[in-house]
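Homework help board

Subject: predicted structure for assignment chain

Our instructor gave us this sequence and asked us to write out the predicted structure in token form, then describe one feature. I got the tokens but I'm not sure how to describe them. Can anyone check?
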Amino acid sequence: MSERVFVLVIPGLRMNDLEQMPYLRKLVCDVAPLSPSFPAVSPVVQTCMTTGLLPQDHGIVATGEYDRATGELVRKRKAIATPTEYVWMALRKYYRDFRCDLVGMYPVDNSAADHATADLLRQSCAGSDDCAAIMTAMQESISGDAQLVMTRLPQLDAPGHQFGPSSQEFAVARAKLDEDIERSSQHAINHSAQERATPPLWIIASEYVIVPVERAVSPCALLQAGGIRIAADDDGNISKNTVRVMVEGQSAHVFIDHRIDSQSAAATTAQIADLFQSIDCIAEVLDQDGRARRDLAHPAAGDLVLVAETDTVFLDHTAFLNHTADPINLPKGAHGGPAETLPQRGLIAASEPGVLMGSSAMSDFDVAGLVLRQFGV
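My token output:
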């Protein structure tokens, strides 16, 4: 059983990156492929990791959310709010003084949780991409009293999307990430020595993998070209079958307003599905049965969910128009699609042998159970 566990959640980290990261390679001994849930975006994957549940069970199915009662689309939620139990809540049941620090993770809404009393969960740099601030906050948590520290390190994220995962910019960021991990590890070793404590267990988990892309498409532009009315973000008026699209990299949720004419809305849904199924850069158009097949059978998901081909990224309409005018700045990398092949899967690794229990492969929702076992739960 471990006294302290430090989990590093790293977007963009691939299995083959380990060979180019000498310190991380030395730090870990158990390594296995790790598959993110679909859609592979931060709030979804992080909630899977911290609850042990699939998206259709914990209810976080996208970065944003759509209110079917009002027709309002929020493209980026302020915080994750789910009634399910998180790992730190489970551990507080066994350890009265248990504490968890989240550093750089997507904000978690504690207000409705039974455990909202004071000191169980502390959050810093929530939702931030400021690497320097996150590193400082993580070192403060290492020097603190939290038994579980979960930190998202975003060093690979921006260069992976902007320049691609095979770029020199990505390689430079990867080297810097390795240095940052070494500095934090040494800080933990020194702190443990000062406190005469056992060195912590490190668990490294990819949040998602960024794959190279060559094509960009706007689902909104495709709908407009097909004669489907799209609601503008500032359009407060409701008209029949208004459609809203929430783009998430290599996935997109399509919502059809059912408030006025549900029969007509069903016909529009079928029309939109037929339209998208004829587009060669769209790999899948998930209806109700398709969403269930992808473990996304939840009312918060779109009426249709689009999956891009692996070489394609979806853009919202404004970004698409901007990139059409300036194609040089198109994204060179993307994430969000299902992890069906090894290059789309990341890794999970541990600093002590036997932690992964000989697993040949794991999924993001396995991380919660893995953490609980380290504390004897």
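Reply (TA_rk): Your tokens look well-formed. For the description, you could write something like this. The CA atoms of residues 216 and 313 lie 5 Å apart. That's the kind of observation they're looking for.
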